[in-house]
Amino acid sequence: MSNRSPIRIGAVAMTLVLGIAGALLFELIRIPIPWMLGPMFAMLVVNNLVPNRMAWPQPLRNTALIIVGYTIGLSLTAAALKQIALQLPVMLLMAVLLLAYCGGIAYIVSKFSGMGFKTALMGSIPGGLSQVIILAEETEGINITAVTFTQVTRLMMIVICVPLLVFSPILGQTKDAAASAAAAASAAVASWGSLFPNLIFFAIVSVACAFLGNRVKLPTAYMLGPVIGTAALQLAGVHGPALPGTVTGIAQLMIGIYVGLMLRPAQLPNKVRNLTLALGSSVLLIVGALGMALLLAAIQPVSDATGLLSLAPGGMDQMGIIAHEIHADLSIVAGYQLFRMLFIYFIVPPVIRMLFRIQPRGEKRRGAA
Predict the structure, then answer these.
(1) Cα–Cα distance measured from residue 141 to residue 12, given in angstroms and rounded to the nearest whole number
(2) Exposed (0-12), middle (13-18) or buried (19+): which is 78, by Cβ within 10 Å?
(3) pLDDT-derived band of residue 292, with 50, 70 and 90 as boundaries?
(4) Residue 176's pLDDT band (boundaries 50, 70, 90)?
């Protein structure tokens, strides 16, 4: 994948064709969320069999994030925001528990792998990939390759395993009754004819907020900007139309291709050891998120599936897509994911830098190994 090199039209076209083929294959064999997981799997296989032949420009991924951000923003009504505000203490508790759990996983990985605790911790933080990589680059004694691979493996495992868990008997009922009724009502009007003229106004606002958010360095600006802009319009009494399934499917396709191209196991040194550790830590993280989701469902009026999607450290865009597909409570999922994302972006980096400053010097040399 090359986001900074000149766009190769033929490579982009081939990437699109293979992504659609993967989606159709996954749809045929009834894999959950086929238009995201299918392209992801196709890119993972093809890009590693024939390196540097696929291409997917960053603007296509950003367009998909704007669409997802708009969909999430539609769910943030005044009633939903009030419900989210009431859950802020629980959000803080869950964010702290998840980060503490990730710290424990990092400690175990560092002992078994021989890599430094710094590198293991950076690979375990359930934050945005780009933010963690930037933080790792700014911290002395970090193995950037190991951090990148661990983070991308975690993301892939979360995005692949969470839908399977959501649709499995483990979580039982996967749809909230109220959310399902609301989704059914919105689906009835989510036709092409009902999009205009309101969608034009919302599209302009969403794109403007995306670029403005990127300008002021908002976390995941191309998604969070439209979320904020759409939610603000909704609170002002201007209601946007629901998007047809075709549009959300295209967004899933574009994100699935992008994520699939990120994983390049061939470039990783000590492949067997690092892959085993990355997969093992990812499984532990998923199990921990599932346990906390069941705890959340026990203390809050949400379904198990909504709880898992709220706490799964896979990114608000992917979890939002899954929540939309299964008619989970999208506003709650977005609220928890957004809170944890902002907590990790603004609170965790200074705390980690402070902790790393008091690390022994020997750890610095071992972390870079």
Answers:
(1) 37
(2) exposed
(3) very high
(4) very low
Three-point CA angle 164, 13, 17, nearest 5°: 40
Q: How far is CA 106 from CA 124, 280, 287, in A?
A: 6, 11, 15
Q: Are 254 and 60 in contact (CB under 8 A)?
A: yes
User: Which one is predicted more confidently, 275 or 201?
Assistant: 201
Give the number of residues written for the chain.
369
- Could you tell me the sign of the dihedral formed by the alpha carbons of 10, 15, 18, 24, in that order? negative
Number of helices (H), then strands (E), in the chain? 18, 0
Give dist(CA 147, CA 129) in Å, integer. Answer: 10
At residue 111, does pLDDT exceed 80? yes
Residue 207's nearest CA partner among 59, 51, 8 is 59
| One-letter amino acid of 139 | T
Q: Which domains does the chain have, with CATH numbers?
A: 9-367 (1.20.1530)
E strand spans, the chain: none
Q: pLDDT at residue 273 above 60?
A: yes
Q: 3: which 2 tokens?
A: 């986001």
